[in-house]
Amino acid sequence: MKIYTKTGDKGTTALFGGTRVPKHHIRIDSYGTVDELNSYIGLIRDQDINQKYKDTLINIQDKLFTVGAILATDPEKATLKNGKERLNIPKINEADINFLEKEMDSMDAQLPQMTHFVLPGGHQTVSFCHIARTVCRRAERLASALNDLEPFQPETLTYLNRLSDYLFVLARKLSQDLQADEVKWIPKKTE
Fold first, then answer.
1. What is the reported pLDDT for 12?
2. Confidence class of residue 141 from pLDDT cuts 50, 70 and 90?
3. CA-CA distance, 136 to 74, in Å (whole number)?
4. What is the pTM of this model?
5. Half-sphere exposure of residue 118, counting CA atoms within 13 Å on the CB side?
6. How many beta carbons lie within 10 A of that of residue 96, not counting itself?
């Protein structure tokens, strides 16, 4: 199988189900941003971090492929003529969301209470986490806009929301593990 198909040379691409849409379609932007997020999570996973975090990130990357597939499915072609779902994979579910929550709770229990916003940075690995968090928020915004136009499985949107929270807590935990300074944002007072 060749990587290049030439079918997108005129600025369109196919959704799961065959429908062709412009490459700038919000659906493409949504799952393309999820793909970008997945790449940044791979970058975090490539850092010298605890194996438990790496294992969790692999789980998240797997779920992000599911999210991408859900977003890439044309809702008008989501069901086959025989009544079965075109996307024949496990969907995002409450257990996936609960997994992120439990991971956050576990890390959060080991962190000092947060009293201020935190400036992103302090260590390259922590910065990668913050970049992934902001890309996740962008993916969530795009997916939310898409959902307004063409609703999809609600747990998918919830998962992206929870994942950005997870990436923030992971950034804080990695700051602690790497003994990086966590710089608080303390706004200056006007005189």
1. 75
2. very high
3. 22
4. 0.90
5. 21
6. 22
